[in-house]
Design goal:
Oligomer: single chain
Radius of gyration: 21 Å
Largest sheet: 5 strands, mixed
Structural class: alpha+beta
Number of helices: 16
Number of strands: 12
Strand order of the largest sheet: 1-2-8-5-3
CATH superfamily: Cytochrome P450
Shape: globular
Distance between the termini: 57 Å
Strand content: 5-15%
CATH topology: Cytochrome p450
CATH class: Mainly Alpha
């Protein structure tokens, strides 16, 4: 007999310590790995906390990613709720096949392992340039503001094809978009400005002829209207920037707080590669969602999920499931985190995962090579954790060396 008592609205996110799961998530996974949850609009759907059920939902085509069907686990105004559902053409990550497949086919060639490996020198240049700026400014430094937020933005901008002479203006708008202190009207204005810039880039790239960057390729292919190309650019920017920036900062914090693991990670390239995978599992920065909606009645974990029910997946809980991972609550790069769900699973698995891995590997190695005596300027428990947003992070990462 299932426990049908609904948990409070939304996925539990409050943490006693930054590297520990919210206690409620641990309890839910142990007692009822699929349980009832109240969404922001009052809908009583489901919360999945186990690895096996999370992977099942993400791989099952009976669960939809469509924005117009999904509820979300936070309260929104009526206007914001309607805007969330009225997505424009091009927001492919909130679509199902075959619509989603069309966009994915156009983009996948830009994010292959081989293509990402060709970008390694550019990633290394961006990382070294930013570390030089940090070093010249001298300690103390805020590696969140001065490094983690900057490196992914520069790399993603290059992949998209933001022209060099437009880079500063583009960065200013993006900084407003992802600043948690920005007012809602400023975020809306920045969103419009970035979309307008993308339209300008598309127009100039069409006139210039075939180009290898994402916007240039899409503009030249003629398969999508300009508005859709600009929207795809927005999707890739938002998907590729915030999660990578927060993962970069939290990974640095975790390595600073676990010197034995840091020493192992930096001892050779193979161990660094394993360390990145373990950090992705251990941190699981996407901690609100993903969200799916049942298209038909589905039996899941002994429960009957009815057509129209929304299902939220707690990735941090799934990625620390003792049924899947040895010593799940510990950061241990000698463990095998193969199969973690930090990049999702199934047809919606993160398109830019190989790029994110390159950024993380390059950055972690370079930071500690440049600053071997790096240490926190404040106690880790005093850092402000941004737990209410979909992507877990810290507002600052103050360091000295």
């Amino acid at each position: 007999m299932s426990d049908t008592t609904a948990v409070p609205i939304g996925i539990p996110t409050d943490r006693e310590r930054i590297f520990e799961l919210p206690p409620e998530l641990e309890n839910l996974r142990e007692r009822r790995p699929i349980g009832r949850m109240v969404y922001g609009d009052g809908h009583v759907g489901w919360l999945v906390t186990s690895y096996s059920l999370a992977r099942t939902v993400l791989a099952d085509s009976r669960f939809s990613s469509r924005a117009d069907l999904a509820r979300i686990p936070v309260k929104l105004s009526a206007e914001a709720e309607q805007a969330r559902k009225d997505i424009p053409p091009g927001v492919f990550h909130r679509m199902d096949p075959p619509e989603h497949t069309k966009y994915r086919r156009l983009l996948v060639g830009h994010f292959t392992v081989r293509k990402m490996e060709s970008l390694v020198p550019d990633v290394e240049r961006v990382v070294e340039d930013r570390l030089t700026a940090v070093e010249q400014a001298g300690p103390p430094a805020d590696l969140m503001r001065d490094f983690a937020k900057v490196v992914p933005l520069h790399v993603v901008s290059q992949v998209l094809g933001v022209p060099e002479d437009e880079h500063d203006r583009f960065v200013r708008h993006v900084s407003v978009l992802f600043d948690q202190e920005s007012a809602a009207e400023d975020v809306a204005a920045a969103t419009r400005a970035i979309h307008t810039q993308f339209l300008e880039f598309v127009d100039s790239k069409k006139r210039a002829g075939a180009q290898e960057d994402v916007l240039g390729h899409l503009a030249g292919s003629g398969e999508l209207p300009d508005e859709e190309v600009a929207t795809v650019g927005m999707v890739l920017l938002t998907a590729g920037y915030e999660s990578t920036a927060n993962m970069l900062a939290l990974g640095l914090l975790a390595l600073l707080e676990h010197p034995d693991q840091r020493a192992k990670a930096l001892s050779d390239p193979d161990r660094l590669e394993r360390a990145v995978e373990e950090l992705l599992r251990y941190l699981s920065v996407t901690h609100i969602g993903p969200i799916r909606t049942a298209l038909q009645d589905v039996e899941l974990g002994g429960e009957k999920v009815k057509a129209g029910d929304s299902v939220s997946i707690a990735l941090p809980a799934a990625n620390r499931d003792p049924q899947q991972f040895a010593c799940p609550a510990a950061l241990d790069i000698d463990n095998s985190p193969v199969g973690h769900l930090a990049f999702g699973y199934g047809v919606h698995q993160c398109l830019g995962q190989h790029l994110a891995r390159h950024i993380l590997r390059t950055s972690y190695a370079a930071v500690f090579r440049r600053f071997p005596a790096l240490r926190l300027a404040e106690a880790a428990e005093d850092l402000e954790v941004c737990a209410a947003k979909p992507v877990l992070g810290v507002s600052r990462l103050p360091v000295v060396w």
